[in-house]
Amino acid sequence: MSSIGQPCNQNGIYLPPGTPPTPLPQPENPAAPFEDPVEMSQGNVDKLMELWTLTMLKHDDFSPFENHATMHKIIDQIEQGDAPWKCFITQVDSDLPANAPSWQRDKYQIWYRDPDTVISHILASPDFCVEFDPLPYIHVGPDGKRQWCDFMSGNYAWRQSVQGAMYVGIILGSDKTTVSVATGNVEYHPLYISIGNIFNSARHAHRNAVVPIGFLAIPKGDRKYDDDAVFCIFKKQLYHMSVAAILQSLKPAMTQPVIHRCPDGHFCRVVYDLAAFIADYPEQVLLAGIVSALSTDLDGEGGHRTEELTRLLLDKYGGGDGQMLWFNYGIDENIRPFTFDFPWADIHQILTSDLLHQVIKGSFKDHLVDIAATPTFPGLRRFPHARRFKQWTGNDSKALMKVYLPAVADYLPEEMTQCLASFLDFCYLVQHADFDEDTLNQVDTAVTRFHLHHNIFITTGVRDSISLPCQHSLVHYRQHILDFGAPNAVKKPWRRSNHYNALSQMLLTNQRSDKLTALCAELVSFGLVTPNHPPPDPFDIESEDAGAVDEPILAEVKLAITKERAYPRSLERLAIYTHHPELPSLTCRFLYDQLRATTDPPSEAIFLEDCLEIMSHVYVYHSTITSFYAPSDISGSTPSWHRCPRRDCAFVVENDTAKGFDSMSVVRILLLFSFTHEDITYPCALVRWFKQHGRHPDKKTGLWVVKPKTVHGNPVISIVHLDTIFHGTHLLPVYGSHPVSHKFDYAYTLDCFRAFYVNKYADHHTNEIIFS
User: Fold this and answer.
1) Does residue 484 sit in the same domain as residue 561?
2) C-alpha distance from residue 471 to each of 113, 363, 451, 486 (Å)
3) Stretch among 394-403, 436-445, 487-496, 545-554 having the lowest mean pLDDT
4) Where is the composition biased (Pro residues) (predicted)?
5) Average pLDDT rounded to a whole number, residues 613-621
6) Residues near 248 by Cβ (< 8 Å), separated by ≥ 6?
7) Residue 262 included in any domain
8) Residue 500: its pLDDT value, please?
9) How many angstroms separate the CA atoms of 499 and 676, rounded?
């Protein structure tokens, strides 16, 4: 048996197969330092304690905490997840001239916590017991094709794994988002860490699988130093020296296995490796110590850059004026990448692209338009007044991508629209968290189509050159997926920023939060509390899309729990109330079709009198919930949403044997209701049908087009069982070449246009449904 990842005892001696893990020590009070495992509010703690004490006085007792200071003191005593923040301070050169700028004379605080301690807590957390890969693996699907998903399914883990120990690939990510604190002429950028053994799904949930381990000081100077070469070199060198110093505790385990407890409770020999650093193009330039955009032909021939080659060139040509290395090899000789200080690490191999900042924000947001009218959809922002942001965020870029293509389709040359469609297809494909050979081929096709059409930006005078670093990165995504799987979600927004708090105070808050999370995970393992990993609130209907699809599309649609009380309970009165006089007859025919044998004629072929009469109460709902492996989505049919009616659209499955959009039709949900017949509840929807326009997607946009279905000029309306509704869909108008009036109300979009694009960019579920 291979000893890779084989359990051992605390002394490193391998255990026989089947040996149960050493149980965690059970303290007398597992909830220590708390008296009981209670849940506490984070709001006005002092007021809460005061009110709590008042309620306990009648029992001659007091609240468990006197005030917030007492509560914080108790939290600080938690041993689980203890990785305290520390600080080191840079030294100032003693031989600086008296007139040296302030950024050279200042001392800089670098806040960090021991990454070895953080990783040991991740490894030991029982929270990841069923979401942990101890070994590299090859995943082959039912069709015999290989699949790539989590980090350990990639080729890089196979190449780096060693005999005799469990390979732990360390994934790093830094965020250019500035932490706003009262620190004078210094900004701080967070540095995050995770390990490749954790499933992507756990990393997306951020259950202490992605942990901030440092805050890198970024000096600020007067405006006159903005382009100062010495100041730029100073900042770059401080960055690399800071990262190297923070990661020093990892070095021993890179050459000699160490013993760590794993999520299943076993001890194991572990070897660390700097495996991946997720960064956008400017960060990659900084990390690799190269010259930004030196070449205008990024797609031309060129060898692979390695650390060995860089060292050789530095030894041969370094020490002069730097011109030879700068212009001939694109190397900044003033920078020594932090990986130079670690065994086996090569910054050129471990850099992997950041989709949001490098592709979506780096490329897409350069093409902006005014968007005025688009129907609502869960997770979709609108741009009613062109949204003149002072700072364009990642969420803004992603939201614009969802509606951009139909808005510009009739304003741009056809080839430019096709180029943008290829780019959007690429962005959505690479956000999947599960890739097979077919998906990778689709990625390649999207990149090929993008390169086929992108010269249109030059021929029309939009750009002088299209060889942009951010766009060039598209060609590397396939190799990154083969090597690293899809290690997304290693960078997350820092949520503790406060303009009036010192950084040390904010980090203490973070430290306490991590301790509570670790204690909760241990209490769950002891069976003292129930697991609490809720998905994002499905009723947060305008929230941003949660992230990549973590599993194949499987869905279940249910009516919301709450029944609306204002509606009549009989079909006849409900028909009058909702202005749908055909509702009773359609419902009776629907029930007939649900009960009829396959040899019986369909309801359209019989008289209404031959259908069963529905005698039960009818209940109306304003929403349905579509549950996926990934977070749930919600669709609605309500007469008033933000003072306007909202009737969402959905996919209805009509042909189980077909694939993708060919298996479905689009409907607009006019009413959601249920009734009972012979003790069976029938959840259903009154829907208006759309018909497919053309046998293929639109040539320019690659989107399917639908039109409202009519018979003799009347809309086709029927009732469908909720089981046939697969997922909500978003329709965008075929706007044409005439601008939409700014006075037009988006709520009436679906009523006023003659044709609509089926928006495959609305969310990741829709994109996978149409691509499948």
Assistant:
1) no
2) 36, 6, 10, 19
3) 545-554
4) 17-30
5) 90
6) none
7) no
8) 41
9) 58
Instruction: Say if 450 falls within a structural domain.
Output: yes
Averaged over 391-397, what is the pLDDT?
52
Domain assignment of residue 480, given as a range? 412-488
Residue of 576 and 640 predicted with greater confidence: 576
For residue 271, report the phi and psi dihedrals to the nearest 5 degrees.
Answer: -120, 130
Tokens of 710: 């009519």
What pLDDT does 230 receive? 87
* Length in residues, the chain: 772
Burial class of residue 641 (count of CB atoms within 10 Å of its CB; 0-12, 13-18, 19+): middle
Instruction: Note whether 759 and 662 are same-domain residues.
Output: yes
> One-letter amino acid identity for 278?
I
Q: Decide if 622 contacts 637 (C-beta within 8 A).
A: yes
- With respect to residue 235, please indicate whether it lies within any of the assigned structural domains: no
| Residue 109, pLDDT above cutoff 70 | yes
Q: How confident is the model at residue 441 (pLDDT cuts 50, 70, 90)?
A: very high
pLDDT at 384 exceeding the cut of 50: no
Number of domains present in the structure of the chain: 2
* Domain final residue, candidates 488, 512, 538: 488
Name the helix (H) or strand (E) containing 620.
strand 619-621
What is the end-to-end Cα distance of the chain in Å, rounded? 40
CA distance 85 to 172: 18
357: DSSP letter = I
Taking only the tens place, the pLDDT of each residue in 158-206 is 998 888 899 999 999 887 655 544 445 567 788 999 999 998 878 766 5
CB hemisphere CA count around 130 (13 angstroms): 1
As a whole number, mean pLDDT of residues 622-628 equals: 60
The answer on pLDDT for 38 being more than 70 is no
SS3 480: helix
Structure confidence by residue, pLDDT tens digits, 587-610: 999 999 999 888 889 988 889 988
Residues 6 or more apart whose CB falls under 8 angstroms from that of 108 comprise: 89, 90, 186, 217, 219, 238
Cα separation, 267 vs 9, in Å, equals: 6
718 and 594 share a domain? yes
Range in 139-153, 522-536, 648-662 with the lowest mean pLDDT: 522-536
Write the single-letter amino acid at 68: H
Average pLDDT across the chain, whole number: 77
Report helix, strand and coil shares of the chain as percent, to nearest 5: 35, 20, 45
**Which residue reads 């800071």 in tokens?**
242
Select from 488, 509, 530 the last residue of a domain.
488
Contact between residue 655 and residue 621 where contact means Cβ atoms under 8 Å apart? no
- Taking the C-alpha atoms of residue 312 and residue 300, their distance in angstroms, rounded to an integer, is 23
- What's the CA gap between 436 and 426, in Å, rounded? 15
